[in-house]
Amino acid sequence: MHRVVILGNSGSGKSRLARRLGGVLDLPVVHLDPLYYGPGWTPGDPTVFRQRVGEALAGETWIVDGSFLSLVGDITLPRAELIVWLEQPRWLAMTRALRRCLDLSGAGRADLPDGCRDTPSREMLADIWNYDRHARAEIERRLAQLAPSANVRRLAGDRPVEAFLEGL
């Protein structure tokens, strides 16, 4: 396994799994958020973002943390040897996302874009709450279109994630 894409909604554990998987497989991890967002979560230029992702994935080994399928799915999905789709329960994703926002250590996450902090927003909470209604169908469509024969592992809950890691 040399090229992995990790999908899932906010709070599902994508970044954590990417870091752990990168350590186990000794592969570089590419976090998409810092390649797209500027300070204060300002969206970047899609053309520049695509160029950055293309450069980051120019090598033969990588783990991608993040979706952005409408912008770069055609770059990430077709080359992936494995696509891991984290399907955490809504309550767990919501809890994790809110817990990140309440981190009082001030350290922040290493995978955050420069000048960004985890802060609760109506948009983030709505995205998590409506993930199954809105994002799931779009992800299914993109997978069928861009990577129809891809090896997709759906991991629903923390136990399957741990079993997946232990099985490597």
What does this structure look like?
Strand 3 and strand 4 form a beta hairpin. Strands 2-5-1-6-7 form a five-stranded parallel beta sheet. The protein has a two-stranded antiparallel ribbon with strand order 3-4. The protein is an alpha/beta fold. Helix 6 packs across helix 7. Helix content is 48%, strand content 15%. The model has no long low-confidence stretch (mean pLDDT 89).
* Mean pLDDT over all positions: 89
Report the structural category. alpha/beta
**SSE topology string:** EHEHEEHEHEHHHEH
How many helix segments? 8
Give the terminus-to-terminus CA distance. Answer: 10 Å
Rounded to the nearest angstrom, the radius of gyration is 15 Å
Q: How many strand elements?
A: 7
Catalogue the unreliable spans.
none
Shape: globular
- Main beta sheet strand tally, sense and closure: 5 strands, parallel
The percent of residues in helical segments reads: 40-55%
| Portion in strands | 5-15%
- Physical arrangement of strands within the biggest beta sheet: 2-5-1-6-7
Question: Gist?
Answer:
It is built from eight helices and seven strands. With 168 residues, it is α/β, with parallel strands linked by helices.
Q: What labels describe this entry?
A:
168 residues; alpha/beta; two-stranded antiparallel sheet; 8 helices; 15% strand; globular
